Prior knowledge:
The chain has one helix at about 1-65. The chain is an all-alpha fold and about 70 residues long.
Amino acid sequence: MKRAILSYITQNLDKMQKSFFNFSSILEELENNFKQVSQNFSDAKEQVLNLAVNSENLAGKFLNYHPNMCIV
């Protein structure tokens, strides 16, 4: 009887350990995905800021060539 109980506990502990390992792997993958998403947003923000600066530079050049024009 004790062996059966011990065997049952051992099997369940093994299953729990495997489940925990799977859960840990999933959490690690999620963490990596969130890091990648965060980096993508950071890159996109930088690109938008660069686009704004380039647009402002272009507008300035346009006004230098066409000083009588007004950009709204």
